[in-house]
Design brief:
mainly alpha; single chain; 13 helices
């Protein structure tokens, strides 16, 4: 399977899981930090179970990348907390476009750390992505300002953008399923350790109705993660993978309009998504 086809699969699964996250977070009982940790651990266990059944889960050579593994835990741990906090109040369509700026952080980190080549069209694409983010922000047409929640969305984008470059480096040493298992479980455990109160708050997810939604969301997200990181390992550059993966901007906005009835500023959202998509094509 080619890395381009894997990216298309990751877009489909990723957009669907974003909508599912938003549906569950609308419930006032769901605490973002507890939700984040529980979701990461559950998804990691599902991936690990599949990995143990189907492939080799050894961690040979991990000693040489201990710093990168620690960085992975921090970036994915806090990145997920930021994304869940933002999704608690932001519309899924708006969050998705703000979150698309992670491609800028991936390009910067990949250029400086992995020495991947940055072309002029990448810079033009980056400008278009920022324009799309500003257009989807209700306040941005009046003044250049983000709300606190939108700022948290940008922190999530920065965390995941840097984490993607770090993950490509780790995948040069670890196989896919061992990497994914710890990339989900360890950040979730880390967040639970630094915020111990959320352990008690996780009991809300044991509700049969919510747990069934969590399982569906975790399975969908796991499939998207497997497709994404498989392509990250196969593709020529990490920037291409992250850029093409962000075609989910269009998919998520359209799905949110159709299924979640997020139709406020509809024309503005569609135009912003289209501008961001044009930028993503240039970056890819």
């Amino acid at each position: 399977m080619t890395w381009q086809l894997l990216i298309l699969l990751s877009v489909l699964f990723g957009s669907t899981s974003t909508l599912l996250k938003r549906v569950i977070l609308i419930d006032d009982r769901s605490h973002p930090k507890a939700y984040s940790a529980f979701f990461q651990i559950l998804t990691g266990l599902l991936i690990g179970l599949f990995g143990f059944i189907t492939t080799d889960m050894s961690y040979a050579g991990f000693q040489s990348i201990l710093f990168n593994l620690a960085l992975m835990v921090l970036l994915y741990g806090f990145g997920n907390v930021f994304s869940f906090q933002a999704l608690k109040t932001l519309e899924a369509s708006k969050f998705t476009i703000i979150f698309s700026t992670r491609v800028l952080f991936t390009i910067l980190a990949s250029t400086l750390i992995l020495r991947e080549r940055l072309l002029p069209q990448h810079l033009l694409g980056a400008i278009l992505i920022f324009i799309g983010v500003l257009l989807v922000n209700d306040k941005s047409l009046k003044k250049l300002a983000f709300s606190k929640t939108e700022g948290i969305g940008l922190l999530a984008a920065a965390s995941f953008g840097l984490a993607n470059t770090n993950s490509r480096f780790i995948l040069q040493t670890l196989d896919l399923y061992p990497f994914l298992f710890i990339a989900f479980v360890l950040p979730g455990v880390f967040i639970a350790l630094i915020y111990p109160r959320i352990v008690g708050q996780m009991k809300v997810f044991l509700n049969k109705k919510i747990m069934s939604k969590m399982l569906i969301m975790s399975i969908v997200y796991a499939l998207g993660a497997i497709a994404f990181f498989s392509s990250l390992k196969l593709a020529p550059t990490s920037s291409q993978v992250v850029s093409l993966n962000l075609t989910s901007v269009i998919v998520t906005v359209l799905l949110a309009i159709i299924f979640l009835k997020e139709r406020k500023n509809l024309v503005q959202k569609l135009f912003a998504a289209s501008v961001s998509f044009a930028g993503l094509l240039l970056v890819g």
